[in-house]
């Protein structure tokens, strides 16, 4: 048994399969999930686990080059916007509709229980060397 890091076997296994350039959509409970990507649904109830908890856990385990979020997050959810800007120096903002289009190309979707709007980010995996 692992003693640290992400303990969820489905999520841990999915992360191990990622490679350079792969996309990981970390999304709130309301984001439409496209057909295609592998989905690990962590949502338990409204707000649990939070977007921030899951994002921080993923960033501790993954090499991330950057991310893409919806520009609407700045007005609708300033706390999530601040979190994203603090954690991802390479953050690109696009319309929410464009983010939904881009999500179809993700390799993995991690759904949180977040119940605040626009708490979504498409992470782009990097490489450790």
Task: Provide an overview of this structure.
- Helices cover 32% and strands 22% of the residues.
- The chain has five helices and six strands.
- A six-stranded mixed β-sheet has the order 2-5-1-6-3-4.
- The longest helix has 11 residues.
- The radius of gyration is 13 Å and the shape is globular.
What are the key terms here?
single chain, globular, alpha/beta, six-stranded mixed beta sheet, 129 residues, 5 helices
> How many individual helices?
5
Q: Report the strand count.
A: 6
Order of helices and strands: HEEHEHHEHEE
Report the sheet-strand fraction: 15-25%
Q: Ranges with pLDDT <50 over ≥5 residues? A: none
Tell me the overall shape: globular
> Which strand order do you get reading across the main beta sheet?
2-5-1-6-3-4
The main β sheet shows up as: 6 strands, mixed
State Rg. Answer: 13 Å
Q: Which secondary-structure class do the elements indicate?
A: alpha/beta
Mean pLDDT: 97
Helix content percent band? 25-40%
Distance between the termini: 27 Å
Task: Give a topology summary.
Blueprint: H1 9-16, E1 23-27, E2 38-41, H2 51-61, E3 64-70, H3 73-76, H4 78-87, E4 91-94, H5 96-103, E5 108-111, E6 121-125
Parallel strand pairs: 1-5, 2-5, 3-4
Antiparallel strand pairs: 1-6, 3-6
Short description:
The protein is α/β, with parallel strands linked by helices and 129 residues long.
